[in-house]
Amino acid sequence: MILGLLRISQLRCLEEAELELAPGLNLITGPNGAGKSSVIEALSLLGYGRSFRGRVRDGLIRSGQPHLSLYAEWRDGRGQFRRAGLRHTGSSWEARLDGGPVPSLTELCTELPVVIFEPGSHELIAGGSELRRRFLDWGLFHVEPSFLPLWRRQARALKQRNALLKTSPAPQTLASWDLELAEAGEAITRQRQDYLDRLEPVLSEVAKVFLPELGACRLEFQPGWKREALSLLDALQLARDRDLMTGHTSVGPHRADWQVRFAALPGREALSRGQEKLTALTCVLAQGKAHAQERGEWPVICLDDLASELDLAHQRQVLAAVIESGAQVLLTGTEEPQTLREVACNVRRFHVERGEIRRLPDLSAIAREA
């Protein structure tokens, strides 16, 4: 997909901003705190329904304003013109897609695939399992039409089961929710396993570029219960007494996780902080590439403050890889990366200053005129 226009209103320090984006690489520079990352946050809201920095009500809306507004126009992989708008107050939202109302943010996010690498992305590797489940489910959400109904079904069953557990019910009253959670959870788990099996060779290919010193890599899936020995229904029944004591469900797909394992790190030796960043980047780019293979179109790739996260050699590798892919890229930084002109000749440049965004002259056009 190619994003052509992005309008932002009342998002953090951006009062009103408009970007007419190029199909290839778009560079957004400016001093710290000027609003560069807020552009990426806007795409995160449209593509994920949330900012990577937190909830909308936690400071995302510009101080003193009742809501933020976003508008985007793009062409999808089939060349069709699309448009979407979102207004969010922090506690409620309203969205439109191609002129019609959107009943759920999920429907909007389905149409606007975005992958993001930002300074907190190392938490995908070093942080808790919730981030890794979100990563896994994002991939399924965009390529498996049956995944979302299954996910909603298991979420509802889990919520109902947990509510019952807090009332100290008779064990037999949990039976129907055990069965519902088990049926949906088993199906979700099969889809998650299949997705990781498809992602693994793509990830291995990308890892050879960025982390060759770590050797072959594989993805290790942890479904959330001892799946090799028990069905989920049996696991729920065995855990019932413990769950009644704690008041929550201790096994199931909501406890799932996955890890990247490298051959050169035996015994699950820990990655360094730099290796964590590169592994997270590898996962993000591999997911974008896998999406392109399955859907026939790259998601928009956002690289927030890349120069502060990677050394010059890895910056060069990343920029060369994303440019070669043909994907649309948004790159932010306090200044233009030293390596950019080595790997890209057609770059659309923007500058952010005091919450205002302006497009800079095309350097190649200036050179031709000279």
Identify the notable features of this structure and list them briefly:
globular; 370 residues; Rossmann fold; six-stranded mixed sheet; disordered C terminus
What does this structure look like?
The chain has a domain of 181 residues: P-loop containing nucleotide triphosphate hydrolases (Rossmann fold), CATH 3.40.50.300. Helices cover 43% and strands 22% of the residues. It has 13 helices and 14 strands. Strand 6 and strand 7 form a beta hairpin. Helix 5 crosses helix 6 and helix 6 crosses helix 7. It is globular and about 70 Å long.
Q: If you compute it from the alpha carbons, what radius of gyration comes out, rounded to the nearest whole angstrom?
A: 22 Å
Level-2 CATH architecture of the domain at 1-112 and 302-370: 3-Layer(aba) Sandwich
State which percent range the strand residues make up.
15-25%
Strand runs, count: 14
